[in-house]
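Its record is retained below.
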Amino acid sequence: MINRKAIGYITANYTGEAVSVLTDVRPIASIPFMGRYRLIDFPLSNMANAGIKTVGLVMPGNYRSIIDHVGHGKDWMLDRKKGGLFPLPGNPYGTTKRGMRFLLRDIISNKMLFERSDKPYVVMMGSNIIFNLDLNAIIDAHEFSGAGITMVYVRAERKHTDCSSLVIGDSGRVQQVKQGCEFGDNKFMDCFIINRDLLLQIIDRYQSADYLDLFEAIAGDFSLIDVCSYEFKGLAIGIFNERTYYARSMEMLNPDVADQLFRKDRPIMTKAHDAPPAKYSAGSNATNSLISAGCQVDGTVRGSILARGVVVESGASVTNSIIMQSCVVKTGARVENAIIDKGNVIPANTELRGTPDAILVVGKNQMPA
């Protein structure tokens, strides 16, 4: 299936205000999730499932991990002679405002992507609010409405300081975009559809305001542009810092929650790896956990997420933790309420323990050899 109506544009170069060792070596978009995915997999898969075959990906300065993961887009069916995945130059955000994901400077810099397209619409997404939706239904609703922009929102299930919220009038038109949202507000999902011709007009009209986010720049012209809204009734997970990353990951251990994000009719695609199935030795114990291919479990794993190639040796235990790729938990070691980034070896008889309110985070290759 090829979508004849839209091209895609994904921003991956913004940073959050929260400092974390998890993003010292990678952008937010390439943070591992659920053992085998990266956050960037979700916007790419949403577009691939809708048949969008031309996608621009705005790259951060530390782009190596994203390029290593997405390559030419083969795993999302974007390695094509016509169209395909286009890595785009991104501008440094510096100290950014919360909720600022669509820097006008980036859009202006990559004007050629939109000029060369013959599709009438552009689907724009961020990377750290993840969801699984039917983009074709939203594109059709946008076309039917006759609006210039359609912004996708969901009812906020909790307070979010890093999200934006929409003030929506009786006609479903967006009147204002506000920073932050409270429980029950209309949480903007960093997903919207814009008419390509309108986007090119905005690029020409707002050159002098290129330091602003797109929606900051056009705030005074909402009534003229006709900004419509579309309510998504599924699951939308925001990951902005270590606390939300840990909490949302642990929620995925509930099959009823995970099934809302991982659907058979709209699969989430990721980079293919050739790895053997996880191996469980006699006497090992694994309960309520997600354990990826290539893992070896000789000890105990409870309520945890293990990425590819993790080894838990005999007598070791991992509880309520996220262990990333190629880590080794040696005999007698204890890990609890922790996030352990890739490549760490936890020495024998060592205890790494956080609390549910203060998760212990160990950065990539930080444990002494």
Notes: DSSP finds ten helices and 28 strands in the chain.
